[in-house]
Predict the 3D structure of the following.
Amino acid sequence: MTNKSMAKLLRYRWLIFTILSSGYILVYFHRIAPAVVAEDMMRDLNAGGTLTGFLSSAYFYSYAVMQLPAGLLSDSWGPRNTITIFLAISFAGSLIFGFSTSPFWAILGRALVGGGVSMLFIPTLKILTEWFQKKEFAFMTGLLMAMGGIGSLSAAAPLVMLNNLIGWRFSFVLVGLLTFILAIIVWFFVRDSPKDMGLPSITSDGQTKSLSTGLLQGLYFVISSISFWPVALWFFFNFAISFSFIGLWGGPYLTQVYGLSKSQSGQILSMFSLAMIVGSPMQSFILDKILKGRKPAIIFSSIITLLITSALAFYTGKIPVWGLYLLCLGFGIFTSSIVVVAFTIVKELFPIQIAGTATGIVNIFPFAGGAIFQPILGYILEKGGLINNKFTLPAYQQAFFVLFICAALALFFSLLFKEPIDKSYI
């Protein structure tokens, strides 16, 4: 490769990463936004707690279902084509959601949004393997997660201001339009690999060569592995916590139990996003300098998560406001940023030719956790009754006790992890 070609490749790959990571901002915006506008949605759509839980979790159902075909479509259609098409679907879902007149249309729109943005993560990882070297991959994944933190941040305090200005409906319509613009930008500027631009491959070790392993063979190999299931179940229970609290019920909890304004609750929830932005480097430091392994990092994070959820479950209405800031900060670091370590474990547990299949399968579980537990918590809150159109403190205590149980199960499964042989720390 000539110096001129290398310079062009190095410049252009950062343009591609910037475009795709901007899409990941939208992914997290859609994922977290209902927590901020939950009360407005319940009022305008005349929906109770259970129905609101299903409305929000429709994103997670469709997102989870699409993880298996994500790798297959990336291989058959190409990552660029896949991302473009499904971002357009997300745009349509945003319009339907924003203009919905009943819970049915809102759930449909939310499901289309989730299915649309679900096709960004796996195809983006595939593109990164073509444009960045193997030793750069984990770092780039961490940067991608940090961009997700910016998306979460935009779904907190900024969404509150936008909601106050134009309402939650037109806020989602506006984000849908941005999604469509991004789809056009992806089509015109993103390329699946350097060779699509007439540039030589950046890899010299053959890391991107595909080996002859069929989809069904790879699927069977992954799900029949004893090492896979502790990781998958940890993903399920760990993300059930953050998706249920940060993604939906944290907002109503802060306004109804503590009497905070939407602006104040948005500021508190934004701590989760800030933690995601700085969390990946922190996880890397803990992993490399202190714990000397990936499994200890997961166990450590699971212990902290258990402590955080115990505060929610047993001191539901007694946590000081400064403690609520720390609580959301802790969720961002120890339930979300830790995913960089967890995905690296999955990648190292399996041969390279099925690493994408393994990642796609395990990525079903966190969204399944959110999809199942958001309505469960909504049902518990609704059964607890309403006082002045607000859920009661005992109902929140019962709901958050469920999250405490989830944290205990996540810690249990983290103890069963198999430490990968590869010790090249991320």
Q: What stands out?
A: The chain has 18 helices and two strands.
